[in-house]
Amino acid sequence: MRITVIDYDAGNIKSVEKAFCYLGQEVEVTRSPRRILQAQRVVLPGVGAFGDAMGKLSRYGLIEPIRECVERGIPFLGICLGLQLLFESSQESPGVPGLGLLPGEILRLPEEEGLKIPHIGWNSLSYPHAGRLFQGIPEQSYVYFVHSYYLKARQGEIVTASARYGAEIHASVEKGNLFACQFHPEKSSGVGLQILRNFISVT
After folding, report:
1. Tens-digit pLDDT profile for residues 63-72
2. Domain 2-200 fold
3. pTM for this predicted structure
4. 40-50 pLDDT, tens digit each
5. Which among 29, 9, 10 is positioned nearest to 20, based on CA atoms?
6. Domain boundaries in the chain?
């Protein structure tokens, strides 16, 4: 299986590449629209700012290939900032439209006594709806988060995992062969590796 990781100068690409290589996959890191559209699996990772990331996707001519890839049903996984970019807008970058592939907005985590922002660390997941990424993974399993903004999806039925950190975080979504996680499966130990295996196995 070849995993195509989209390179748009965002953080965290190397750790995603290493995780899939550890699982025995061939990994291609590219910003070639042609290669993305020829992919067997596509991953959009990322750590950084929403507006800056959308600017880079536009500059490298990646917005339309990403949309076409999703429309074709090629299994696609957004991770962290990669999840946020799939939605319509973010409070982090007012006036900057996201990819708009899924309906919802990205909000800043609320200030709450005893909770630090950014949210960095392990949180357990609950499963509002069954998701293929979580097959074989018990509810309340822990995964690793690093973020200051979180997803509020407009379609509750696409939310396959949620977590609580001052707000109800829509931590993972699935629609057709489009998947995304706010947390970092590549940094989430055995649970995270199983999530990536499940993504590899999507048909």
Report:
1. 999 999 999 9
2. Rossmann fold (3.40.50)
3. 0.97
4. 999 999 999 99
5. 29
6. 2-200
